[in-house]
């Protein structure tokens, strides 16, 4: 059965350009909606950290590195309390609020092989972003090479303008495949 909406997941190491790709899709006028496990986690941690002057929404790399261990621990806690796909499902549900027929759902933080499997089960596609950035923790170190082999779509990010062009080309190809029923 063909899904009603194109669902695309972006995955790679931290800082490799997932949010940049999403903003690129927006700037190109694509009708994208963001699904993000990280946003779910930041909303949960914001009341704890904001009173101490820590902005969980900061794009500053130093702030991201400061809170990363807490974010990872919180994510693991939620997966144990609920189930491994809890954050994935919560992010998808949040993205589906107010969705229109033309919308494309973009997961900006696919981190685990089981999330790639779920994305595929839903009829979606996974784009792996390749960089020379090292994994930020042992979990990333273990998952990144596995996930790199789980896709037919790899975009190299050398942090130049070609990344955006290549990412748009892949997204256009995915849209075409989705519309033709060949995804």
Q: In words, what does this structure look like?
A:
- The chain is an alpha/beta fold.
- It has a domain at 7-36 and 85-180: Rossmann fold (3-Layer(aba) Sandwich), CATH 3.40.50.
- It has seven helices and five strands; from the N terminus they run βαβαααβαβαβα.
- The protein has helices at 18-27, 37-49, 61-81, 86-96, 113-121, 138-148, 161-180; strands spanning 7-11, 32-35, 104-110, 125-130, 153-156.
- A five-stranded parallel β-sheet has the order 2-3-1-4-5, with helices on both faces.
- Helix 6 (138-148) links the parallel strand 4 (125-130) and strand 5.
- Helix 2 (37-49) packs across helix 4 (86-96).
- The longest helix has 21 residues, at 61-81.
- It is globular and about 50 Å long.
Strand order of the largest sheet: 2-3-1-4-5
CATH superfamily of the domain at 7-36 and 85-180: P-loop containing nucleotide triphosphate hydrolases
CATH class placement of the domain at 7-36 and 85-180:
Alpha Beta
The number of strands is: 5
Average pLDDT across residues? 90
Beta-strand portion reads: 5-15%
Shape category: globular
pLDDT under 50 segments (min length 5)?
A: none
Main sheet makeup? 5 strands, parallel
Radius of gyration from the alpha-carbon trace, in angstroms: 16 Å
The total of helices stands at 7
Query: Helix share of residues?
Result: 40-55%
Known CATH architecture of the domain at 7-36 and 85-180: 3-Layer(aba) Sandwich
Terminal CA distance: 11 Å
- Structural class of the helices, strands and pairings? alpha/beta
CATH topology of the domain at 7-36 and 85-180: Rossmann fold
Q: What's the helix-strand series?
A: EHEHHHEHEHEH
